[in-house]
Amino acid sequence: MITLIIPLYNRKEFIKRAIDSALNQTLQPSQIIVVDDASTDGSTKILKSYGERVELVRLEKNSGVSKARNEGIKRARGEWIAFLDSDDEWVSTKLERQMEFLIRHPEIHFVHTGEKWLRAGKRVKRKAHHKKPSGKCFEENLEFCKIAPSSVVMHRSLFERVGVFDESLEVCEDYDLWLRVSREYEIGLIEDELVIKHGGHGDQLSLKYHSMDRFRIKALLKHLDSESAKRMIQKKCEILEKGAKKRGNVEMLEFCEGVMRRLRANTSTA
Length: 270
Description:
This protein folds into 2 domains: 2-202, Spore Coat Polysaccharide Biosynthesis Protein SpsA, Chain A; 213-269, no CATH class. It is built from 9 helices and 9 strands. It has helices at 15-23, 65-75, 94-104, 157-162, 173-184, 205-208, 213-220, 227-247, 250-269; strands at 2-8, 31-36, 55-58, 80-83, 88-90, 110-119, 122-123, 153-155, 188-199. Helix 5 (173-184) runs parallel beside helix 7. It starts with a strand and ends with a helix. The model has no long low-confidence stretch (mean pLDDT 93).
C-alpha cells in the first residue's frame, strides 16, 4: 500500500493538476491525503469532485508545510509514503517504476527520481551540481537539497528511526529530513524524469525567504559529530557573514556569531 500526502495552501490553480496526475498513475496510491494548511482561496472546494478518492485534512491555522506533511504521516495507512507538492505533477508511470525498483532492491527503503523543471512552461536547463545523489550520499547532500519531495517514496519505518519533518524550519525542512535519512541509510535513485516541477508562479517558499543557508545551517547543527557537516557550517557562515557585513544586517551577523561560538565549543570538547 502506498499513501500519498499532498500539502496544500492557496493553490487552487494547481491542485487539480497534481491530484489528477496521482489518479492517472499506472500503479495508483491506495490512499491520497490532502492536508489543507488553512487555505483562504477556496482550494478545498476543488477537492469535492473527487469524493472518497481523496481524504481531506484541514488545519485550523496556517502552520507551514512541515506541519501539513506530518499530519498526513500520522494518518497514513500505507507501508510506503509518497509526497507530491500541490504545484507539481507526476509522470503516469512514476509509482510503478519506483515500486519495481524497491522490489528489486529490498535493502533500500528510500527512492527518488529525476525531475523536469519548467518555468512559465519552458524547460529549465539543469546544471552539473544538480546531479541527483544515490547510495551512501550524506556528504553529497550537504551543500543544498538535491532531492525533491515530490520525487520521494520512502518506507514508513524511516520516520520512526530518524523522525519526521522539523516544524521549526520555515523552509529547507526537506533538506533537513533527507540529511537525517542519508546519514543512516542508502538512497535509491531512478534517474529518469518522472516528476514535473512547475516554477515561476511567485508563491514558492524558496522565493519567499532570503539567505536560505541560515535554515540549512540550522539543519546542519544536528550533525556536529560529522566533520564534513562542521566544515559546511563554517563555509556557509562565512558566506552569510560576508553578505551581512555588506548590507549591514546586524541580525544575520549575530546569527553567524552564535553559530560559530557553538561550533568552536563543540570542537574544543570533542
